[in-house]
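Extended Data, panel c. Modelled sequence:
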Amino acid sequence: MVSEKGQVVIPKEIRDKIGLSRGTVLRVWTEGKRIVLEPLSEPPKEVFVMAGSEVTRRILGEAKATSDKIVKLLRDLGVKVG
């Protein structure tokens, strides 16, 4: 049965048979009306992109600024951080 969120439970017997465990990354595709799930040992190459230092420097700077703002907000709210 498919849940409201589109989730499906793979029976334990099948998980054990093919070595699936929590956190296993699956490649998913369709063949006609069939859904195929294949365990991956490493992330698929298509999830990676080439990014130069100009792009990564900006993204890392934004992440740090956001992190600093979150830490300040938590401290202002009285939450002990770090």
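The two ends are 44 Å apart (CA to CA). This feature is highlighted in the accompanying rendering.
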